[in-house]
Each structure stands twice: as C-alpha cells, then as structure tokens.
Specification:
DNA-binding transcription factor activity, alpha/beta, D-Maltodextrin-Binding Protein, domain 2, transferase, DNA-binding, LysR_HTH_N, 3 domains, 297 residues, nucleotidyltransferase
C-alpha cells in the first residue's frame, strides 16, 4: 500500500539515515530501501541521494516530503474519525514516561485501561524526563509523561496531575523524622540525587538553591529505585515523590522529614508533538489522563 511507503519515506527523510529509520519502523534496512524504490518507480523520479552516513533529497524529493506529510495526516485523521463513529478503541499505545510515572503511576492506569480495552497493545519506554522529551521529538513515541513543566515551540505540554515531593531518610538516620526538622538541621547532610536530566533532580536542585542548604557530599543514581535503596541503606537523605516511597513509609522502612511551612509540589505533564495525529487508543488514554483530578491513588 502506498500509504505505508509514504510513512517509511517520511521517517527516512526526518532521520536522514536509512539505518535509524529501519530501527524506528522495526523493518530491515533492505525493506526500507524497497519502499523508497517503490515510490521512485511510482512517481518515475529520483527522490534522494544517499551514502552510508547521510541522505540528501532531490527537488522532487523535497516536494514529495511536504505532500506525503499532508497525505498521511489526512489518512490518519480519516481513520480517527471513522474509529470515533464506531467507538472502536484498538491499535497500539507507545508511551514514553519518566521513572516516577512509568514505574509507580502508569502501571495502575494501564491496568484499568487494559481491562476496558483489551484489544489495545501497550508499550512503555522509561527514562528520565529529558530522554522522554527527546524520544517524542524523534517520533519514537506517541506521547510522553514527564515530571516537570517545559517550554518548547514544537511540543504541547499539558499538566494532568499534581505530585508531592518529600524528603526521606532511613529508620535510625541521625535526623529523627518522627519530629519536625528545621532547615538548619539539613545543613551539611549527605544527599542522594538523581542524574542530570531527571525531573526529580531538577526539583532537588531547585530546593537546595532556594533554601541555601549546604551539601556535605552527594551520590548520584540514575533511577528512583536506586535512590530509594541508597537511602534505605543509610547512605544519606533524598527528595523523592511520595509515590516512590509510599509503601516504605507505610511499612516504617523509611521516615519522612517534614519541615514547617515547606510543601513541595510539581506537575506531571503530558507531552505531545505539535501536529501529531493520535490513534483512537492514544486519544482515549490521553483523555483519561487529563480527567485525573490530582488525587489519583
């Protein structure tokens, strides 16, 4: 079908590389080349020049890229409109999610969604917020769920839920979390931090800068689970989402350090490419997210 070849062509043009396009499309590189040859035969024109490292479009190739985008968008819009008429929710969901959302929030949302729409195939890529945004820009995911607000001209960013960040320590850590701490008690502590690019790391850095807290030393882990385990081992204290430590707090394995008059919140946000036309499954799942009132449990 020519529509499939047009989708392959668009991906090759946007990636400027056959190998990366093949990887994104889950095709072999010869399979990608076959689609391009079909289009060149269909239009009886050379569409691109290629080398192992780059792709350069001809004038006809540039024109087809613009028209192909329009045709694919119209095709996807028609599919979506027909699916709405039939109330048919099927297809696939490819979502990028930050660690906190992907590991602690999304599984519960997926569970209820899967029971209602068992025909939808779901796939999640979990990374830090910066990695998720990059995956959305590279057209590797339908949309992303991240832990911070960003401003970008090529993306729409819509908050769908509030998240509370708290400071935690291990049971028996010198800071006794059974009573309120003040900022002075947090001076010169060892902090366990997420890596740069993480939404949690951005919030931690902002908190430390705004309060003027001195850090004795810090250790960096590239997952919330790693940070949590380090805190549990008594290595230091950390700022994490309440979602991440909910069970450990209930079991008494970790303690919350509360500071009078300080309450830290952030948004969980839905990120989409501007101009992206969702499948019906994408649309329904996004609608469900945006109906959350911030108190999802």
């Amino acid at each position: 079908m020519i529509m499939e070849s047009l989708k392959v062509y668009i991906t090759v043009v946007e990636q400027r590389n056959f190998s990366r396009a093949a990887e994104l499309l889950h095709l072999s590189q010869p399979g990608v080349s076959l689609h391009i040859r079909k289009l060149e035969k269909e239009f009886d024109v050379k569409l691109m020049h290629r080398s192992p490292k780059w792709v350069k479009l001809t004038e006809a190739g540039e024109l087809l890229y613009v028209r192909a985008k329009e045709m694919v968008n119209l095709y996807e819009s028609a599919k979506l409109d027909i699916a709405r008429l039939q109330d048919d929710v099927s297809g696939s969901l490819q979502i990028g999610a930050s660690f906190t959302i992907g590991e602690y929030v999304l599984p519960r949302l997926f569970s209820s969604f899967a029971r209602q729409y068992p025909e939808v195939a779901m796939e999640v890529f979990i990374g830090n917020s910066s990695q998720v945004v990059e995956a959305i820009r590279d057209n590797k995911m339908d949309f992303g769920l991240i832990e911070e607000d960003i401003e970008a001209q090529d993306l729409t960013v819509t908050p769908f839920m509030k998240d509370e960040l708290i400071i935690v320590a291990a049971e028996g850590y010198p800071l006794n979390a059974s009573v309120n701490a003040d900022l002075e008690q947090l001076q010169d502590q060892v902090w366990i931090l997420r890596e740069m690019g993480s939404g949690t790391r951005s919030s931690s850095d902002r908190f430390l800068a705004q309060t003027g807290l001195r850090v004795n030393r810090s250790y960096v882990f590239n997952s919330s689970q790693g940070v949590k385990e380090a805190v549990f081992s008594g290595l230091g204290i950390a700022m994490l989402s309440r979602w991440v430590v909910k069970r450990e707090l209930s079991a008494g394995m970790l303690k919350e350090i509360t500071i009078p008059d300080i309450h830290i919140e952030r948004n969980f946000s839905l990120v989409r490419r501007i101009g992206h036309i969702p499948t019906r499954a994408n649309e329904v799942f996004a609608e469900r997210l945006l109906k959350l009132d911030g108190h999802f449990i």
